[in-house]
Amino acid sequence: MLSRVALRSRPVAQAALARTTPATIMSSRRMYATSKPDDAKADKVKSITVFGAGLMGSGIVQVAATSGYKVVMTDVTEKALENGMNIIHKSLARVAKKMAPKAEKSEEDWKQQVLERITTSQDPAEAVQNADLVIEAIIENLKIKQDLFAFLDSKANKDCIFASNTSALSVAEISSKCSEDRRTRFAGVHFMQPVPAMRLVEIIKAPKTDPEIIEILLAITARMGKSPVNCLDTPGFIVNRLLIPYLMESVRMLERGEATAEDIDQAMELGTGHPMGPFKLLDFIGLDTASHIVSGWQDKADQGLIDKKLVEPSPLMQKMIEEGRLGRKSGRGFYDYSSKL
Ligand SMILES: NC(=O)c1ccc[n+]([C@@H]2O[C@H](COP(=O)([O-])OP(=O)(O)OC[C@H]3O[C@@H](n4cnc5c(N)ncnc54)[C@H](O)[C@@H]3O)[C@@H](O)[C@H]2O)c1
What we know:
Structural class: alpha/beta
Shape: globular
Strand order of the largest sheet: 3-2-1-4-5-6-7-8
Distance between the termini: 46 Å
CATH topology of the largest domain: Rossmann fold
Oligomer: single chain
Strand content: 5-15%
Number of domains: 2
Bound molecules: nicotinamide-adenine-dinucleotide
Largest sheet: 8 strands, mixed
């Protein structure tokens, strides 16, 4: 715990502490303990349009449709949409066993009901015509996200809420090409991978986001069975801000020859109760994805928003990426998965 003396010398920590009033602690505890959706707020949205039918987009479409929302899944090619629907079909088959109501309906009927709530589109203007909420889960590139939202701003209903599933970009920067009104209805909703299984969603308030929009997003994600947390629009939000520097320091420890990847993983699994050590986790996330986040933070470090040392690139990771050792998805990272492909 920080002592009073330490806090006095840290104005930022003090300011953060000042914001964390007993009331905010209580309300977040309540949310985690119950995760009960506020129905009136969750009902403000009936129809959701998701941009991106990849790993994250398809997962978000699935959990939204499973929770009763009508969903349009949008991508740039028919092949990407087919890929997204295949992911959903496979995943629904797995969850149907748990979710299908016992006796009343067969697993197949339940799946069919969920699938009937999903439509697909390659036409972004048409896809947002009736949307109450847009969730974007496309490539992690600021300009591409900005351009998409600027276009959608002119096509969507003025009340439609816009949200980005960005891992580490600034939500305010993503929304910067939208109108001032829309920016009050713009937030981050950061789901975790794999979306159907992971309970956490970070709800990110940018400086202009109306608090009412945050309340609605908390209610919607709670209805999706998630336990959302509030956070501000800072580099990496909560999870990645803590996780990425930890993963990078693990790689640097390996580079310095202080321990093997296996021993570091074992130490963190058995010594701290983490389900996966840092190298297994890096292989799961993808070395390219982790490295992308780190390089995206360089300008934040230059602006003094994050410590430079925390986001120094790793020569070992760069070499592995150049060799195509990206982790599980490529069959090899710090560990070998070739027999599992
Ligand atoms: N993969 C993860 O572990 C993870 C976790 C949390 C958040 N995210 C974030 O979610 C977003 C998507 O990540 P992903 O892993 O699903 O990526 P992905 O590569 O699996 O899927 C991205 C999809 O977006 C599509 N796309 C690109 N431009 C588009 C456009 N203009 N309109 C519609 N579709 C478009 C692509 O065709 C592709 O199908 C990124 O911002 C990423 O940082 C990823």
